[in-house]
Amino acid sequence: MSLELNINGAIKTAMLAKAEAELRALRAIKAAVLVAKTAEGSTGDLTEADELKLLQKLAKQRKDSLDIFRQQNREDLAKKEEEELAVIERYLPKQMDEAELRAAVEGIIAATGASSPADMGKVMGAATKQLAGKADGKMISALVKELLTK
Question: Any idea which GO molecular function terms this record carries (predicted)?
Fold first, then answer.
């Protein structure tokens, strides 16, 4: 089932439940889907991979805003971003924990034959493809850097 159909049903449910934070996040997702579908050069359909990238982008925006609001001691705004992030994350695949991610990255390093920090680009290319949607890019990068500098 497509993301758009899931969102439309969830919006209706959130409206009936008067769940303001959930409704805000769902409307943001729906708006992003519509923008992506009507973007110049778009075919009008989104693949599952496109939907995943879109949700990851929305989640990253919320995380970045959350960090900024916390630095500025704006807990009122940070709370809104946290609520929206929680809703968006429901539509994303389960994220790997650090132990799972470490094991996966070690496997990728072994498979690519990387041995020094100079091989980071090669490892990151393989890791981002293999772990797309399952882990945050910053975490992957930090772990690859740590493992290659040992």
Answer: carbon-nitrogen ligase activity, with glutamine as amido-N-donor
